[in-house]
Amino acid sequence: MAEETRSLKQLPAPKAGFLLGHSTHFSKDPLKFLCDCERSYSSIVPLRLGLSQTCFLTDPSFIAEVLRERTVFVKNTPGWQAIRTLVGVGLLGSDGDFWTRQRKLTQPTFHQRRIVAFGELMVKATEKMLVDWKENAVRDIHRDMMDLTLDIVMQALLNVNIEGKEAKAIARALDLSMKWFSQQQKRGFLLPINIPLPLTRRYFASVREMDGFIFKLIQQRRVSSEDTGDLLSMLLHVKDETDGSQMSDRQLRDELATLMLAGHETTANALTWTWMLLAQNPQVEAKLHQELDVVLQGRLPSAADLPHLTFAQNILKESMRLYPPIVLMARSAIQDYVLMGCRIPKKCIVLMSPWVMHRSDRYFEDPLSFQPERWENDMEKRLPKCTYFPFGEGPRICIGKSFAQMESILILATIAQRYRLRLETEHEIVPFPSITLRPRDGLQMHLLRRQTAFA
Ligand code: HEM
């Protein structure tokens, strides 16, 4: 006999408010609320956030299924609609056939072979930043990592310099978008974008200014046909193999805005949390220094060193386990779908959280402690799929994964060769989940010059 299908309503759920459902608890402290759900309820937790019927998944195989079924579970959620105001219908926020075409066109651009060419640029940009670092100074390391990764992504994408007015306009739009999203989030629900609040007006004005610069850059490149070796040059030349068509200016603009947003904050935050964790765990830091000294012998790192910097790789894996830059992923069901015997109704929003899965004691021993060694002996391969998924999973897995891994290791190695960073604050560092997970009040750190045999 066929097994009976349960409805979401039959599953145990946290107590909900009459009007706002679970929104009040969720918006107060989303990470704690979701961790409590994982500990106290079954693998599918029904929730109501505002008017939206929602469910939260805590079983890795359920998460893997939803991420795999990209034609049923799409990105048409209020959060994604807000992100589209910045990135349009680029890879990150599109669905269906349009996404398939864009992914096919963009994928070769991110091939490992091509990405390696950006290694030198990444190290040079880090060295340029270090010119302003002085021994014993106190700096907001979060700000520094944001500026550095923006510099790198701008050069890799557009071959423009961070000091130029184009880059400044783009940085302003990205920054205002973060503020705008945070403001929306604090409210606990998203207001329609056409309500002319002051920040909303400033945000849209800055997006228009950013667009002006991007369209101008695209035009200049089309006219000159110059290959400047950046990602824009590659995207300008890719052709759909079925009909030979190329990307329009609008599509190029949307992809560039997407790559700037997706490729900058995420890596900056991964590095910021890594510096905090290294300062809190000096024995791990000492082991990193030892590896850097043995492998690099005092010279600058390059892409060719990556396979030998295995402890550095494990540090970043472990830091993204505890502080995944994307803490929550959302999809909306376009039709009823039966997930492991439970009916997920059409329009239901499905939530999945790397933060929650990465901190579950069902999969990780002593989950809150920072132990890069746990990743030795191919531990990642032995975990069930979607237990550890900082870059997502399935067909929509992060296209910039190799770029981000190379960038974060090269930056980590270049800085850690010369400096030890110590926490300046006695206060608790509060993780704040905006589009990405950042420290709410920045990260003030004290710079100590490292004494090495090579200095
Ligand atoms: C540590 C750094 C990074 C992390 C943790 C990260 C994480 C993610 C995650 C979790 C997704 C999937 C989102 C979802 O399915 O809802 C994603 C998608 C994406 N990421 Fe990243 N990312 C990082 C760096 C980058 C970089 C450097 C780039 C580009 C330069 C990039 C470009 C993208 C794009 C375009 C997508 C959308 C892919 C698609 O839907 O086909 N990311 N990223």
Automatic annotation (TrEMBL):
Positions annotated to bind heme: 398
Gene3D superfamilies according to UniProt: Cytochrome P450
Source taxon at top rank: Bacteria
Gene Ontology molecular function terms on file: heme binding; iron ion binding; monooxygenase activity; oxidoreductase activity, acting on paired donors, with incorporation or reduction of molecular oxygen
UniProt xrefs under InterPro entries: Cyt_P450 (IPR001128), Cyt_P450_CS (IPR017972), Cyt_P450_E_grp-I (IPR002401), Cyt_P450_sf (IPR036396), Cytochrome_P450_Monoox (IPR050196)
Cofactor(s) demanded: heme
Keywords per UniProt: Heme, Iron, Metal-binding, Monooxygenase, Oxidoreductase
PROSITE patterns xref list: CYTOCHROME_P450 (PS00086)
Sequence similarity: Belongs to the cytochrome P450 family.
Name of the protein this chain belongs to: Cytochrome P450
